[in-house]
Design a protein that fits this description.
Structural class: mainly alpha
Number of domains: 1
Organism: Sulfobacillus acidophilus (strain ATCC 700253 / DSM 10332 / NAL)
Helix content: over 70%
Membrane topology: Multi-pass membrane protein
Oligomer: single chain
Protein name: Cytochrome c oxidase caa3-type, assembly factor CtaG-related protein
Largest sheet: none
Number of strands: 0
Shape: globular
Pfam families: Caa3_CtaG
Low-confidence stretches: 178-183
Keywords: Cell membrane, Membrane, Transmembrane, Transmembrane helix
Order of helices and strands: HHHHHHHHHHHHHHH
């Protein structure tokens, strides 16, 4: 922080525009979910204290990724910073956002034809899986990342595209759960998921397993090398004690471990909900 404090003012380091965005989104959240405000028009129930905490945690993590000095480190110095940003925006913020929304808010959203169509297509498990992982590969493809790092606006846009992709990635897991999905299991449910609700625990375990598998090739490719791929970070001042190669390898390992932990936690939750009695039926 000493180097950053000496070379940047607080406006650059703490991005007040991101803070304003986070505050506006939080005000909107309380307006939409409050029965005494906009939520009264649709009869929404008040969010629980836990849901409010999830929303505040999501906004705090979003500000950490995009508004704190981490953003300056990511777009000017370290690949590790970029990987930490992506981890927060795809593995932490989306599940917190979905967990913060009362079920009737999601139901009302899905009653809108445009939203129902969007989630039926982009929220389909197979499509969400492919889109997220392909975007992850593209975003970390060295020529593309190098180009976007040279234009700060493009780098910010790319990060928020990953956040949106993360929201759809976690939808099949975090959507409201159906009481009865008609006995569909495993691969069949990944192909024909129930409309508007989370897929079953066994389908979730398969979904998370495939996501983990698709994450491994780019992680290994970036980490298992003897030379740095990212010219931008190679040219950046090495003020944090990491050389370009060590920075790249550490960043790839950070992303791999973080994704593994996120998927493993969700996998464990799905495993606990799984009905093993179906094995003996």
């Amino acid at each position: 922080m000493g180097y950053l404090d000496q070379h940047y003012n607080w406006l650059v380091l703490w991005h007040p525009e991101t803070l304003v965005l986070v505050i506006l989104l939080t005000v909107l959240y309380f307006q939409v979910t409050s029965p005494d405000a906009l939520g009264a028009r649709w009869g929404f129930s008040r969010p629980s204290a836990g849901q409010v905490r999830f929303w505040l945690a999501a906004m705090l993590m979003d500000y950490l990724a995009m508004g704190s000095p981490l953003a300056t480190v990511a777009d000017g110095y370290l690949y590790v910073g970029h990987m930490l940003q992506v981890t927060i925006l795809t593995m932490i913020v989306p599940p917190l956002i979905w967990a913060s929304l009362p079920a009737d808010v999601i139901e009302t959203l899905l009653n809108r034809p445009w939203a129902a169509r969007l989630f039926r297509i982009w929220g389909h498990p197979l499509l969400a899986l492919v889109i997220f992982n392909v975007l992850t590969w593209i975003w970390d493809y060295p020529p593309i990342l190098d180009k976007t790092l040279q234009v700060s606006v493009l780098f910010v846009i790319g990060n928020y595209i990953m956040l949106i992709a993360g929201l759809f990635l976690w939808w099949p897991v975090m959507a409201p759960r159906a009481q009865n999905i008609g006995g569909r299991r495993g691969f069949r449910e990944l192909l024909t998921p129930p409309a508007g609700v989370a897929i079953s625990p066994e389908a979730q375990m398969l979904y998370l397993f495939f996501n983990f598998d698709l994450m491994m090739p780019p992680t290994i490719f970036i980490a298992d090398t003897t030379k740095p791929f990212y010219a931008f970070y190679e040219r950046a001042p090495h003020v944090f004690g990491l050389g370009a190669l060590a920075d790249q390898q550490t960043g790839a390992l950070l992303m791999g471990v973080a994704m593994f932990l996120a998927y493993a936690i969700a996998f464990g939750a799905a495993f606990r909900r799984y009905d093993f009695s179906s094995w003996y039926a």
